[in-house]
Amino acid sequence: MSYADFITLLFAFFVVLFAGSRGDAKKQQLLAVAIQTAFAQGAFDAHSKTPALAPSAGAMGKPTPIAMPTPMTPEAAARKEAADKKRIYDALAQMAVPQKNQNLPPLGAKPPSPEKRGTAISAVSFRSEPEGLVLSLQDAGFFNSGSAALRADAIPVLERIAASLPMGPLRVEGHTDNVAIHTALYASNWELSTARANAIARVLLARSLVNPASLAVAGYAEFHPISSNSTEEGRAKNRRVDIVLLKQPLAELAQIVSPAKPSLSPTP
Description:
Elements: H1 3-41, H2 74-96, E1 124-129, E2 132-138, H3 139-142, H4 155-164, E3 170-175, H5 189-207, E4 215-219, H6 232-238, E5 240-246, H7 250-254
Parallel strand pairs: 3-4
Antiparallel strand pairs: 1-2, 2-5, 3-5
Helix pairs in contact: 2-4, 4-5
C-alpha cells in the first residue's frame, strides 16, 4: 500500500468518527430539549380538582356506615321458633286427618311411647335447644332396624316436613343407641348415623327451598343421647335423626367452640 492511499484511508476513518460524534450530540441535544419541555409544560393532563372516587370510596373521604343486621331479641327468637313449630305441626296434622290411627297428639303433649307408634307421623317430636328448634324423627317411623333406607310410608311425611321448613340454616344430625352394629354396609354406629342423616338431607334438599349452602349433615353415633340406654324405651328415643333449625348461620357456628353435649351414662 502506498503512503498516499494510507493517508486517504486514515482521513476517511476520522471523517466517519467525526460524523458519528456529531450525530450523537444532536440526539443528546434533542433529548435534553424534550425533557426540558416536558417539565415546563407537563407531559400529562392536569388532574381535576374534584377527586375521581366518591367520598365514601376513597380513604380520605367520609366512610358511609354499613347497615349491619340487627340481632334478634330473645322474645323475637322465641316467637319465630313457635311460628316455625306451628307451621310444621299444622302441615303434619293436615296430612294425618284423612288417615285413621295416625292422629297427632295435641301440640305440646308428651309423644306416645315407641310401642304405640308405628307411623312416621307419630314418630315426629319437637324440643328446644340453645342452638334452635329441634325436629326429632324417631327411627321406628322412618327406617327399618340397622338400615339407612327410608321406608316408603315415611317419604310423604318427610316431603311435607321439607315443604314447611323455613329458609334458614339447618343441620341434620344422625343418632343411634349404644348397641354395637357391624354389617356389610355399616361397620359401626358412626356409619349408620351418618347414612341416615344423609338420607333425610337428600329429601329436604329435593323438596324444600333450603339453600344447600345453609345445610350441614353430621353423624354422632351413640355419643349424644337424650335418654338413658339402660332401657328399651330410652334406646328407642336415642335412635333418631334430628333436624335442627339453627338460630345462627353455619359460618358463625363453625367459629364457636362449644362444649360437648352431656352424655347420659346408663345406670347399672
